[in-house]
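Priority: low. Protein: RDD domain-containing protein. Input follows.
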Amino acid sequence: MSYIIDAIILWIIGAIVGLIFMALGVGYVAASIIIGLLISLGYFTYFFGNGQTPGMKVMKIKLCGTDGTYPIGYGKGFLRWIGMLISALVIYIGFLWILIDKDKQGWHDKIADTYVVLE
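Result:
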């Protein structure tokens, strides 16, 4: 659910930036792919690094390192974002992995050494 909230926020930001680029005459399709990736990179790296995205805050969950560190920092935030891309590449198996993993970690959590915990 937290990801849906974050996706809505990202969609709004992306739509605004996309309209600006379109008004400037930049090709919308090419620009939207690049802009979408850059906005996603910045958004998730920043908020993961600080321990919570706005969606996670609403759902009262946060990220911590497997060693208990909080917040996890921008390096692990970036790794978790890369892990999300990898998790989504193969029909979202990396996210579904949470359902069968004994530690309830998706591939993105394993890559970044993070856990999602209740606030």
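Residues 2-118 form one domain. Residues 2 and 55 are 4 Å apart (CA to CA).
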